[in-house]
UniProtKB/TrEMBL annotation:
<dbReference type="InterPro" id="IPR001279">
    <property type="entry name" value="Metallo-B-lactamas"/>
</dbReference>
<comment type="function">
    <text>Counteracts the endogenous Pycsar antiviral defense system. Phosphodiesterase that enables metal-dependent hydrolysis of host cyclic nucleotide Pycsar defense signals such as cCMP and cUMP.</text>
</comment>
<keyword id="KW-0862">Zinc</keyword>
<feature type="domain" description="Metallo-beta-lactamase">
    <location>
        <begin position="13"/>
        <end position="191"/>
    </location>
</feature>
<dbReference type="InterPro" id="IPR036866">
    <property type="entry name" value="RibonucZ/Hydroxyglut_hydro"/>
</dbReference>
<keyword id="KW-0378">Hydrolase</keyword>
<protein>
    <submittedName>
        <fullName>MBL fold metallo-hydrolase</fullName>
    </submittedName>
</protein>
<dbReference type="Pfam" id="PF00753">
    <property type="entry name" value="Lactamase_B"/>
</dbReference>
<dbReference type="GO" id="GO:0016787">
    <property type="term" value="F:hydrolase activity"/>
</dbReference>
<dbReference type="InterPro" id="IPR051453">
    <property type="entry name" value="MBL_Glyoxalase_II"/>
</dbReference>
<dbReference type="GO" id="GO:0046872">
    <property type="term" value="F:metal ion binding"/>
</dbReference>
<keyword id="KW-0479">Metal-binding</keyword>
Amino acid sequence: MIRIETFTLGPMSTNAYLLTDESGKRGVVIDPGMKPGPLLKRIKDMEIEAILLTHAHLDHIGGVQEVRELKGCPVYLHDEEAGWLGSPKLNGSARWPEVTGPIVVEPAEFALDEGQVLDFLGEKIRVFHTPGHSPGSVSFLLDKHLIGGDVLFRLSVGRTDLPGGDWNTLLDSIHGKLFKLDDDIVVYPGHGPKTTIGYEKQNNPYV
């Protein structure tokens, strides 16, 4: 049974997630954001198998290099955003100099794609390509838990006014993929509180 811990990091209050196995000695980090101190402290004595990225905007990748250097683990990112890690213009860090300096991260070691099944911590993690907020956005499904980045929030959805964003594509991702999942799937978004697929189907005013 994988456990999920949440760390709300940086000036944009981005949710980073730590998946741990039952022993608590092995983990996977998802979206290590800016100012990752609390996360780094938590994983200090753990083996981290990988860093998984839902997408490569500044607030989701700000802590990637620190986690990677501390734990020597590979990074996984969709190929649509392969060049974003090393480009402050593409990852947005050049756009908000009042928030952070330019973020430049070494390329991801592995690509993510639709339908891919990852094997970490003795469990299967299914990958959904869910573009719209950004072209390479993905969501991760493990058991009854969906870690979805900035695609679907509690009573809201991801913004589509950044480079590569598209409103119709976002709606297609939500209706065509996420809303086909069971209603009791718990959604862990990139910002804000958890929700469920069923609750958003019934109550989300944007979809």
